[in-house]
UniProtKB/TrEMBL annotation:
Keywords: Membrane, Transmembrane, Transmembrane helix. It holds the Pfam family EamA. This is EamA family transporter. Residues 7-135 form the EamA domain. It comes from Microbulbifer spongiae.
């Protein structure tokens, strides 16, 4: 069974929003302080829901809180590295790599853990790898290891590693939360309450990173544009919620995961159209290969 029109529409809106909040982060002077304001705004706005859900739960084990703190740390790594990558490179380079590599890394980890993948997934992984190698290039003949020995590529890779880290931590934490709740709240309420807790933890980690002189200056600058930071946080939260809602409307969630990859060409297109970033043929071909590869991996 495929995906319904309503679910597909929700995922498409989510893809636009995901690319959109990255565009907002890139359009200003991207900094960890900006994402600190964005994540804390989500955490604080969902605080009443968090309290209500936690009151419905039985005693949560210490492992849950450790995973939550760990998830916030890896989310901080993701957000901070993303900001540092955007300071050095165009959205058209950073966004596809940071979006695609986590899926590729999780697939590789699956293989290393002894699980088998079908042929279509292997084809998808190959396409993603080649696509990521093409994205940083300006000319095809530039294909040389020095083209990737750059700070922007390194920070995009660290951002992807942060995504893998918080995804694994979230999976474990949500299992503990689900057991403690015993069906007392809806899955959507549980997911959103956890989202609020995770974003609040991430915001605290980012805030700790802003205690230095430079960080305080960036934080003060971000507070001067508080509405934009809060809007970015709202877009982050709504993006995740729409995906969760779409997953409840379809039996095969791989269709939802595959459709989400449309955010990659959307993000690159926004950078070219709205930020006037250059469009290079290797980059555009790489983005196409990444998108096709991720869809193949998602439909395995």
């Amino acid at each position: 069974m495929g995906i319904s029109i309503t679910a597909a529409a929700l995922v498409l809106v989510s893809a636009f929003l995901h690319a959109g909040w990255n565009l907002l982060g890139k359009s200003r002077t991207p900094s960890p302080a900006f994402f600190c304001i964005a994540t804390l705004s989500v955490g604080l706005s969902l605080l009443p829901l968090n309290i209500w859900v936690l009151l419905q739960a039985k005693a949560l084990p210490s492992a849950f809180w450790l995973l939550l703190v760990g998830s916030g740390f890896f989310q901080m790594v993701y957000m901070g590295s993303l900001a540092l990558a955007y300071q050095r490179a165009n959205m058209g380079l950073v966004y596809p790599i940071a979006r695609a590599l986590p899926v590729l890394l999780v697939a590789v980890a699956t293989v290393l853990l002894g699980q088998r993948l079908p042929g279509l997934a292997w084809v998808g992984m190959l396409l993603v790898t080649v696509g990521c190698l093409l994205v940083p290039l300006v000319y095809f003949r530039q294909w040389h290891w020095r083209a990737y020995w750059r700070a922007d590529c390194a920070w995009a890779l660290v951002s992807a590693l942060g995504t893998v880290g918080y995804s694994l931590a979230d999976k474990g934490a949500l299992m503990y939360l689900e057991v403690a709740l015993e069906g007392a709240v809806t899955p959507l309420a549980m997911a959103y309450s956890y989202l609020g807790m995770q974003f609040f933890a991430c915001g605290i980690w980012l805030l700790l990173g802003c205690l230095g002189k430079r960080g305080r200056a960036q934080l003060a600058l971000g507070l001067g544009d508080l509405k934009l930071g809060a809007l970015t946080g709202l877009m982050m939260g709504v993006t995740y919620g729409l995906v969760l809602l779409a997953m409840t409307m379809t039996e095969n969630v791989s269709y939802v995961v595959a459709l989400r990859q449309l955010s990659i060409p959307l993000g690159v297109g926004m950078g070219i159209w709205l930020l006037k970033e250059p469009a290079h043929r290797p980059q555009l071909l790489g983005v196409g290969l990444v998108c096709a590869g991720l869809i193949a991996v998602s439909l395995r």
